Amino acid sequence: MEQNKTRFYLIRHGETDWNKGGRYQGCTNIQLNDAGREQARLLGERFKFLPLDVVYVSPLDRAVATAAPLAAAHGLTPIQDAHFREINFGEWEGHTIAELKEKYGKVYIDFFENPFDHPVPGEGSFQNAMDRALEGFEALAERHKGQNVAIVSHGGLLRVMLVGLLGMGDEFYRKTWMTNTSVTMVDVMEDGRKLLMTLNDKAHLEMAELFEKGEEK
Length: 217
What we know:
Rossmann fold; 8 helices; Phosphogly_mut1; phosphoglycerate mutase activity; EC 5.4.2.11; isomerase
């Protein structure tokens, strides 16, 4: 007999100009750009066809703006939760990888190659970020048993959280990616098992692109 499950939709926010420019955003409160707002709209259209009971969101504006359309599709009000804000990169925020390599040299390169083994300004470590994300997730898993829960957050934080949720090795972080407004689905079973059902699902963006190409022909 299939167990009852709690379904989590883990969603990265829409595109910003800093995303487009390859800049670390962290806790800097960057807004969605036009492309990001359109991605959020398409995400909302997708969620009209998916069951959803509650929406939690990082307090940062880019996540709040992304959560609004999908919550509205179900008449929900997103609940801000600081457990799911992005990793704080401190003085590294606003810089590209190339700029950080030039400015900080080995300190940054060591972090980039093995992020769980080296400190990061602001948050202190990826372990700190993982601990707060898992604390938030486990609280929601207990509070919303048997429901469908969306968490609209950030690529870095969600990938770090996945490492902890699935008990994967630290290297898993560098072997995953989450596109803006992609949906990663995790089911929590009655016995506590956590199953990764989808990763980086961006069907709403891909379908919109196909329709656009079809109209151009």
